[in-house]
């Protein structure tokens, strides 16, 4: 698998796709070079699927269409740099652990950047601009991301709340819902507690944003704006959680820096104020 590998993303998404799309993915993985020369109708015929299924497959992978998918496949075929996802083996040496951890992180970051959409980042920044109050929620490792988001925008003058108790967060949303935004963090996109709070936010007419792995999920169906990271493999000792955490932080940083750039002078002034405030502590 190569950097920003389309084939890697297909492999990771296969088990979550409908059977018609699975057939397309399996055919592409078996014949990547041939697929780069096919039309959408030829691929559908060879994979024993329909052209509509190919379109849905591309959408599930987060690419703009079949030409985009072919271009990415063509770019990675014959790539000399071997970077991929690796799990840790028993009694592995420190040097090997370092190499594998770096490879997993680099692969995830490149795959995440490869599927980011500029217009979605811009929509997210606009929602953050309009909100005075931010409610951010995640479970487990995703709560660390929620805390990072709250800390970043708190320094810029937003009322930002990352509260681990979902009941307390629901109370806060109910009493301060004007010009608010709910940002749900769930790598799988299926975490029940996050979905419940997303539904609560929608009942309160609070705009919603999500951050999850690429693909169709319940959180994307609920969110007004959906941000994605690349998928990472489910490893035996949870290297996926490590990789997904880095990917989530990358997306948050990109949104934060885009937001900061859009009102540069104000942000610099706010950061200077907060720097002075903590200098005496």
UniProtKB/TrEMBL annotation:
Domain HTH rpiR-type, chain residue ranges per copy: 4-80
Keywords, alphabetical: DNA-binding, Transcription, Transcription regulation
Source organism: Priestia taiwanensis
Ranges of residues in domain SIS: 124-265
CDD domains: SIS_RpiR
UniProt entry tagged with the keyword Hydrolase: no
Listed name of the protein: HTH-type transcriptional regulator YbbH
MF terms in GO: carbohydrate derivative binding; DNA binding; DNA-binding transcription factor activity
Recorded name of the encoding gene: ybbH
Biological processes, Gene Ontology terms: carbohydrate derivative metabolic process
Highest taxon above the source species: Bacteria
